[in-house]
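To assess whether the prediction recovers the assembly geometry, we first specified each molecular entity separately, as shown.
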Amino acid sequence: RLVPPSHSVSTPSDPRKNKMPFRRFVEIGRVALVNYGKEYGRLVVIVDVVDQNRALVDAPDMVRTQMNLKRLSLTDIKIDIKRVPKKKTLVEAMEAADVKNKWESSSWGRKLIVQKRRASLNDFDRFKIMLAKIKRAGIVRQELAKLKKESAA
Amino acid sequence: MAPKQRTPKVSRNPDLVRGVGKYSRSKMYHKRGLWAIKAKNGGVFPRHDAQPKAPPPAAKAPKFYPADDVKKPLVNKRKPKPTKLRASITPGTVLIILSGRFMGKRVVFLKQLSSGLLLVTGPFKINGVPLRRVNQSYVIATSTKVDISGLNVDKFDDKYFAKEVQKKKKKGEGEFFEAENEEKNVLPQEKKEEQKAVDTALIKSIEAVPDLKAYLAASSLQSFACYSLERGCT
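The predicted structure of the complete assembly is given in tokenized form:
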């Protein structure tokens, strides 16, 4: 893909980065999702880089720790912080960038919320979903029948 | 005979070192007052001869001697404890019955009986399961609860479910075929009334929750997709 993406979130301002096929970079302020280990599923902010493989990460309700970059899945979201900010500063920056809402409205974030919801379903919940699916299918079929009739006429 | 209350034995001979008493044998003889006991009894220690026991009643020779020596079973003083109810099962929980006539039905749990079995009702109008006893092991407890506070189930116990004892009839040739037709088990009207009494209150609280009635009416056998090994069924 040689055409740069249209939405500005992932277009790096750095002109060198603009030409790369990578769009999400390990940088200070990058929001990432932990994909392995004890903190699995948590959104963290990269707050410093330790070396080639490890970064210092932090989150509002977590003790700041180092993590291997392999444990992190980078997201599109980036916040504006200096290297290793105080916890208070970090929280303020996250509020200012509205990380939570951006995440929950992104398609990735929404998918995870749905997955979590599905995993925590009750037997009764599953039954209600079955009824809802049947209802929805019925409505769709009705509309389809209507359209068929119109096109046949 | 109740045992006499004894004061705990206190030694009159304190230990100097473990195994070595402070007082000698002769001193202890004096301390224990054995001289006084002897003096009271005329210079000798009192003897307590065995009392003549009453002769045991003459037992008849048993009619039957077993051919081989029969081993006596060991004494068993174990008292069985009441079955522990799983923490997930509370009054009002919806249970899924796993075996028996009503396999797959979702029913409402009322209370645990003294035998350990669970008292359960469909309600009868919704899914055809009457007031019934069910073993805890053959049941999955869901996390769905029904409000059961208005219900009084105190009068149901194991005796309520006992089979009626049938008087043994002498089989006459002609009576044999007629008797078969007569002995149909009809549920007495009062049991039906009791079922209705329990169910009306229950159905009211069920209808308060949307879709719950349809849920109880449906059978879980139609959709076993939830029963995966790693997750089990909630």
